[in-house]
Amino acid sequence: MSDEGLCQKSLVYDKAYKFAIRVVNAYKYLTQNKQEWVLSKQLIRSGTSIGANIAEANGAISQADFSAKISIAYKECLETKYWLSLLKDTSYLDEQAFNSIYQDADEVGKILFAILKNTRINKNCQPIIDN
């Protein structure tokens, strides 16, 4: 892989790790202050899985393995954004908290998609992204 790819992976890993910390803190807030356990459990699973899959991608033994792990991380990011939206729309997260954490998720997702696009996606068959 190129040095640029390594640099980008490091950037996305760092951002995903910081995002995971925010997700853990959101989980603590939701369970302790809002007494919400179901949606927050889904959020912590998908939100922390993003970075875990990036970590696995960094140890990939092939380009296909790397791409598969980045793809999973991207999908986990999309799922996380879903749970965040649901938590906002059910009044468990206020607008300000939602906007802040959602922006972080969106940034990680855009980086992951760029990596995925450069390593895997056929240029003739672009997925439709409506986030």
Task: Give me some keywords for this one.
disordered C terminus, disordered N terminus, 79% helix, mainly alpha, 131 residues, 4 helices, elongated
Folded structure, characterized:
- By secondary structure, this protein is mainly α.
- It is 79% helix and 0% strand.
- It is built from four helices and no strands.
- The protein is elongated, with a radius of gyration of 15 Å.
- Mean pLDDT is 89; it is low at 1-7 and 123-131.
What is the N-to-C order of secondary-structure elements (H for helix, E for strand)?
Answer: HHHH
Strand content: under 5%
**Span between N and C termini?**
29 Å
Helix share of residues? over 70%
The overall average pLDDT, rounded, is 89
What structural class do helix, strand and pairing data support? mainly alpha
Main sheet summary: none
Shape: elongated
How many DSSP E strands?
Answer: 0
Write down the Rg. 15 Å
Number of helices: 4
Low-confidence regions:
1-7, 123-131
Short note summarizing the structure:
With 131 residues, the protein is an all-alpha fold.
Task: Please write out the topology.
Blueprint: H1 3-33, H2 38-58, H3 63-89, H4 95-119
